[in-house]
């Protein structure tokens, strides 16, 4: 069951009364880890996820009791838990069924202060608009959860020989295997270059076409093995890492989803409210950085103008000019956090 605008239409939003919790389907995005191994059998693991920059997100959102915060990438519920511990009311959104169920179980002690929605965060603008909801804060953690990376059945990594899926929402869209069965070589090479910064993009695409002509590429091992035959391994990073990242980003339209979310966030953030976004690769971080800078600049200038003009879209204030990165201690505890970067902006208050 997907919960829409009706979920917001309660006295909870006005008087602090909460609705029930709901479970449904989702996940986020992020960077594939280094040194992935292959060949293990497919097994289902219990959901687990180490939340990155957990305390920093809660601190820089300046969470206070009674605030209404939207966690658009609920995942394992780590960020939401930190917000709830500080007294906030939290709406957690995720499109991964297993993640949502696990988060609901984890956050059950907070009872009526937590609501879970089975949605993709890209679609929340319309839901918030229909319900006329304004938020005190928004959190987006764009990283793939540890469980998704480690779960064989999801096909996010090539540590296990598993069906090549790569979908965040397994109820819709093509799997990566289905996509590779029909994509043109030039288009595939462009995807590897654009979303993975893969220098051997054309060589890899050609190798995939050659193998596809003989037999379908159906598993993570099939794809990783095909790539390793034409791109030699150097160091700890497997040569298929960037290609897997690129396919995952494309299959889930991760950048498109982020772009849509960035359009609705300013409209539904209260004056003084803050947005915190954690990204794990340069494509996402670049989008977030340009968006925050563009909406935080009081003046804009163009070559054809005689002088700078005031920016009519200046509705945000960057809390930090540079992104916040994990501490050395956090990276030691969780090496996958090393590529994370947190950016925070505040909705400007009316003069």
Report the sheet-strand fraction: 5-15%
The CATH homologous superfamily name of the largest domain equals Vaccinia Virus protein VP39
How many individual β-strands?
9
Contiguous low-pLDDT stretches (5 residues minimum) are 1-45
The total number of structural domains is 2
Q: Kindly report the CATH topology of the largest domain.
A: Rossmann fold
Distance between the termini: 43 Å
- The largest beta-sheet arranges its strands as 3-2-1-4-5-9-8
Instruction: Give the biggest beta sheet.
Output: 7 strands, mixed
CATH architectural name of the largest domain:
3-Layer(aba) Sandwich
- Overall CATH class of the largest domain: Alpha Beta
Coarse morphology: globular
Whole-number mean pLDDT: 85
Topology as a string of helices (H) and strands (E): HHEHEHEHEHHHHHHHEHEEEHE
Radius of gyration from the alpha-carbon trace, in angstroms:
21 Å
Describe this structure in words.
By secondary structure, this protein is α/β, with parallel strands linked by helices. The chain has 14 helices and 9 strands. The model is unreliable at 1-45 (pLDDT under 50). The radius of gyration is 21 Å and the shape is globular. It folds into 2 domains: 5-148 and 255-347, Vaccinia Virus protein VP39 (Rossmann fold, 3-Layer(aba) Sandwich), CATH 3.40.50.150; 173-251, Putative methyltransferase TM0872, insert domain (DNA polymerase, domain 1, Orthogonal Bundle), CATH 1.10.150.170. The strands form 2 sheets. It has a 7-stranded mixed beta sheet, sandwiched between helices. It has a two-stranded antiparallel ribbon with strand order 6-7. β1, α3 (78-85) and β2 (89-94) form a beta-alpha-beta unit. α8 crosses α9 (201-214) and α8 crosses α11.
